[in-house]
Amino acid sequence: MKAVLGLMVILLGLSHGVETYCLDRLDGVQCYRALGGTVDIHLMGSTSEIYRYYLLKNSIKILDVRKNEVVSNTIGERAYFPSNGTFRINNLSRTDSGLYTLRTFDSDGTSSGVQTLQLFIQAPVSSVLLVSACLSQGEMRVSCSSEGGDSPQYSWTLDGRTLTDAELLSGNNESKNIILKQHVSGRLTCSVRNNVSYVYKEERISTCGVETYCDGRQDGAQCYGALGGTVDIQLIDTTAEIPRYGLFKNSLRILDVRKNRFLHNTIAHRSLFFPSNGKFRINNLSRNDSGNYSLQPFDSDGRSLGQRTLQLFIQAPVTSVLIVSECLFLGQMRVSCSSEGGDSPQYSWTLDGRTLTDAELSSGNNKSNNITLKQHVSGHLVCSVRNSVSEVYKEQSKCTCDISLPICGLRAVVVIVLLIGISIYFTWKKKKNEKAEASAALQAEFPENSVLMVEMRGSAT
């Protein structure tokens, strides 16, 4: 029968969702396996008639087989060689990396073949963390970090497609740290992989909300601007023919415009005036920009044409949201939603795209940042955090908590109590029957009106 031989590695199992196989029988193949995992080295077919062969690692013999019987196995405590010609090594360590050589011999000791395999052991990526922060001009810095994993490689997608250079201010699709341009939003995913694992993290991002609009033509308007962001104040209509007007903040003039040309601007280093549309833009907003603003127009003779006021509030935007969940004893789930940054954050919850109802909650409500979900509530859970200048949300697929153990324990207690009760009942019934039988025996032996029975009744009385 023709001998079947070869050096083939089958990498068993899943490493964080990536199934890796090395099936090539060609000489010099390279294979990868996860640290702590298992590798199967297929030496030859189970029908092989090769008289003798051995396996070397970096020129050191680790397995010697003669007539399909193992002569020596230097790593026998974590290696297994069954009858099908496959050599399995468990609990792989970094020292298992190296060059493996299979040498075969005929019955005369003459070499009949050599096959080699290069094996690399890598630590798998275990988890991925995304951290995002808004920058001063509305950009968003996003950092992707991984735990564990040798030689991690990063990649980004937005709404399922590769992130493009047109959406990036710095970094590229293979960087771990990127800066997204203004107005870039959607489902951002960072994937981290190496040769033995693949893990990803996704986060729904929205624009930093740093560019807001304020209609200063409405007297008494209340407007909001994002800290570090931009606000556009509409001072007049584009068709207005006002000869001169000034903008005051807390009674201090900051802008003076005559015939659509500004004469004075105290914050010119971070503001712009657009005569064509009557807008005044303030960049890099600080908390000092909060206050009362008033617009005072004048006619050509310098007479006041009235006054309009607005109030501007500067808020820090919400930058990121974190959801943490834990199962409780009775199958409920406690879910906490926390936000980073953001003045006066307001919370809301949805489940599968609809508002979370009180019927699904054991504690908290749709506006709480901490809630407890009832048993069997599952689906796509989203916590949204907003204030007047930003909105960020985090989503999580929520499964019901496993409460089989508590229920089984409770059932066991019920069964035990029931068995004890049955045992007590039958013991009592047995004693009662024995007493009744003894009484019947006495009556049968001694008549009703005998002296002994009369004495017994008297004694009982």
How would you briefly describe this protein structure?
This protein is mostly beta strands and 461 residues long.
Q: Which features would summarize this protein structure in a list?
A:
disordered C terminus, 2 helices, mainly beta, single chain, flat, six-stranded mixed β-sheet
Describe the structure.
The chain is mainly β and 461 residues long. Helices cover 11% and strands 49% of the residues. It contains two helices and 38 strands. The strands form nine sheets. It has a six-stranded mixed β-sheet with strand order 4-12-11-6-7-8, with no helix packed on it. Strands 22-30-29-24-25-26 form a six-stranded mixed β-sheet, with no helix packed on it. The radius of gyration is 40 Å and the shape is flat. The model is unreliable at 1-6, 8-26, 403-412 and 450-461 (pLDDT under 50).
Q: How many helices? A: 2
Major sheet: size, sense and barrel closure?
Answer: 6 strands, mixed
Calculate the terminal CA-CA distance, rounded to whole Å: 104 Å
Query: Which shape, going by the Cα principal axes?
Result: flat
What percent strand?
A: over 45%
Any idea what the radius of gyration is? 40 Å
| Low-pLDDT windows of residues | 1-6, 8-26, 403-412, 450-461
Going by helix content, strand content and strand pairing, the class is mainly beta
Q: Could you give the count of β-strands?
A: 38
Mean pLDDT: 81
The main sheet orders its strands as 4-12-11-6-7-8
Helix content: 10-25%
Write the layout of secondary structure elements.
Layout: E1 5-11, E2 14-15, E3 18-19, E4 29-34, E5 39-44, E6 52-57, E7 60-66, E8 69-73, E9 79-80, E10 86-89, E11 98-105, E12 111-122, E13 125-134, E14 140-148, E15 153-158, E16 161-162, E17 168-170, E18 177-180, E19 186-193, E20 198-205, E21 211-215, E22 221-226, E23 230-234, E24 244-249, E25 252-258, E26 261-265, E27 271-274, E28 279-282, E29 291-298, E30 308-315, E31 318-327, E32 333-341, E33 346-351, E34 354-355, E35 361-363, E36 370-373, E37 379-386, E38 391-398, H1 404-445, H2 451-460
Parallel strand pairs: 4-12, 21-23, 22-30
Antiparallel strand pairs: 1-5, 2-3, 5-10, 6-7, 6-11, 7-8, 9-10, 11-12, 13-14, 14-18, 15-16, 15-19, 17-18, 19-20, 23-28, 24-25, 24-29, 25-26, 27-28, 29-30, 31-32, 32-36, 33-34, 33-37, 35-36, 37-38
